[in-house]
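Please produce the structure of this protein holding S-adenosylmethionine.
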Amino acid sequence: MVLHLDKIVPIGRTLDEYVRMFSLTEYDCKKLILSVADGPASFNAEGTQLGYEIKSVDPIYVFNTQQIKTRFYDVIDNIIEQVEKTANNWVWTYHKSPQQLKSNREKAMILFCQDYEQAKKENRYEIGELPKLKYKDNEYKLGLISHFLFLYSAHLDQQFHLDSISEMLRVCQEVRIFPLITLNHEISPHLNFVIQSLEYKGYNCKLEEVSYQLQPQGNKMLKITKLNQ
Ligand SMILES: C[S@@+](CC[C@H](N)C(=O)[O-])C[C@H]1O[C@@H](n2cnc3c(N)ncnc32)[C@H](O)[C@@H]1O
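Below is the modeled complex.
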């Protein structure tokens, strides 16, 4: 695939946001984790410092630090301006204001950039894209995916969602997905189809409320496990 960085919004979240989005316990963090569509989040950088074993996968890892950083600064002010104009449509319990949202995103970007080149040498950031992953069956204990599936429901159809999640479940013993709503702040039209299809295949799907929220209704995570676990 030829990836054009000017079509991508490389915005990432911090470890604290990941812990809250996925209700990660200390026990969860000690598992071998595959974090898909991880982009320029600082989850891997910060988690590695704490001794966690995280592999991040994203198509943007084809680019170098400077390219990702430049693209971030090209888009961030415009995004924050749009959020400021619609401030009443967001929930300010975690990030207290649009400016604090910007500084948290900047913090994640800086931590990611400091880690990125060295981490690539250690294979902690690998180029890859759903709906296929190059990893072996059950290679990872926990698969995470934040702000990609369900969020882009208008661009990615229900079959793509089912194929992608099934692929993550092939590779990971458990998968957690956040958020479950679209860019328009609506519950994803693909959610019920995905849950019904996975339950039919024998997976256990659980919707769990989490302690992170920025979008209205956006405080639920989908946790999927194999029934014998
Ligand atoms: C909004 S960012 C989320 C980054 C990070 N997960 C977070 O929440 O901070 C969405 C990411 O999905 C990645 N992406 C786009 N297409 C993908 C695909 N087919 N498979 C995996 N990741 C993809 C983008 O490159 C981008 O980094």
